[in-house]
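Quick one: structure tokens for this chain, please?
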Amino acid sequence: GCEYKASWYSDRACVTPDPTPVQGCRVVDPDTRYLYDLTTLTLSRDYYQTTVTVGGFDVKIKANVCGVVDCGPDIAVCAQANGKTISLGKESTVTTELAPEKGEVQITYTGGDTSSHCLEGKSSKIIIMCCRAEQDMKILSVSEGDCLYTFTLCSQKVCQFSPKAVVSTQSTGKTLTYSNGVITLTYKNGDVCSRGDIRETTIKMVCDHSLSDVEVEFDQIKETSHCVYEAFAFSGLPCDKEVLSQCEVAGYDISALALTRGNYYASHNNFTFTINACRGLNSPSPCSSNTAVCMRHGVDQGVSLGEVSSAVLVYEDSSLKLKYRGADLCPGSGQPYLTIITFLCDAEDNVGSPEYLSNVSCIYNFLWRTKFACKDREEGDSCTIRDTQSGAVLLDLTSLKGTYTINTPGSTDSYSLAVCDKLPDSECKKDTAVCLATQNKHVSLGLFESDTSITNTGSRSMTTLTYLHGDMCVQGDGGSTPYRTVIDFTCDRENNEAPSHVSTTECEARMKFPTPLVCLQDVTSCEVVKDGHVIDLSSLSHYPQYLVSNKVELDGYIYLAVCQSLLNSATIPCTGKAAACLTRNSDSQSTTIGKVTGPLQLGPDGNPELVYSGGEVCPSGGTYSTRITFLCDRDLPSVPYLVAVEGCE
């Protein structure tokens, strides 16, 4: 077949006992004497979870830190697929080690299930690294090798970790060290404590470019062991020279995405990407502070995919893009790596974080959904509405522009109405768009003004045009307010009728204008019944297009519409009523990979499914098609993911 497959997790597709955390998972850095109590990362439910694709099957991974998961007694990490559970390590075997030069804490579990090539049992290593709040407590990547599964876990609770000193000075009672943006100051020989111990305090000061050299913000102070104290603080004093880049273009400003503490993370297979926007990476990081995008394979040294000094923010092809050129060279071409981050508006007002999309010829592509890439989602004038992100014309009522006369049955009153314009030679005042003629007078019911525009209230099938500032109207309480007129454009596929007067109440005239122009085109049913319950995905059709996140390698991007055709634009140049469109990076060409051919239905696995077929001719025979499976998830954002490409499917 020639079909693309996408899985879409959404709360709109929806119809264990607590484990006991184990105490004592603590480790002390022998150089700094910093105590890491990893039991604070133990989860009592839900655990650290992710899903990976192995051999075409989704495998669910559950892991805990210094605790067990609900996969069986003493199991700390497990994999689940097709109803089978495999232990990847036992909690009772836990060992903990520090990687000071990388700013990490590592946990290893052994004693998992055996297999023909893992006679001593499978094991797991969890690498815990510092991250920002929005990615806290998340598994970033998973890799496998020689029966050892390696996980990269993101947590703010290890951000106090300091790399081993490369600069050190000592004097009586105190030690000062500096490394990679962290100053550690240790004071000894304090007052005598209980049991005769001598008090000791360590201050760890981490770079924060938003603060000056004399500003210090203390995050926490705690007693790490008996009469030994630690303070953790931010300051501008430990910072290397700050490297910034352009953050504004074409009316967009993404400077709020530039982190002064922590970094953003993305992952793909066993690669972890450390990223910052318009600013170098913050310590600790596997690359230098001038690097803005750093790639790391497992526990290997970091590779620079982008230097902040090379950053260029552009608005091209109807998209906001941040481009970085790396300091390291790509082995295949001998040229520097290139990173392109494409920003999309997040209508749910989230800051967001970068997502890995693809790597083609050493050009790494990431997608970042964020509120800082938003302008007004829709921009209207008197007769059209455009999507400000893609430039697509969402609605065009220009063909209705003109003057109409509405007679009132049983009355001599009549209305003169202009659509998207003012009335020519009106008996009412200047710029009137709606004029009521009675036996005695003419009354302006609204003006056509420079900011008059049509608007949508939820979808294109609910479209209105409002004229304000007509003549003064006396209200029932004796007060007065200007007349206004609201024209409701309603879907009528059979007729393009003239407007009619519906009512005039509380100084507002209401008109109705049936027209096929506001009807959704190439629409199919977006409802399906499962186990006696209706699953309605029609709310997903209110947005004209979705960009698919890639979980498999793909040269380019896929755009989807839900239960309708895509709107043609500079971003989506597919023609022929495409409902799924593939735009390739390599040659900028686009291919229709499916059209609306049937309603939402239940697939073989019982989940709601849309099948778009009848795309362009597939090189291997037949035509392209796209299959979208909607899966229930109340926590994840409603975003489609590409999970498989089979031939041209």
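DSSP finds no helices and 54 strands in the chain.
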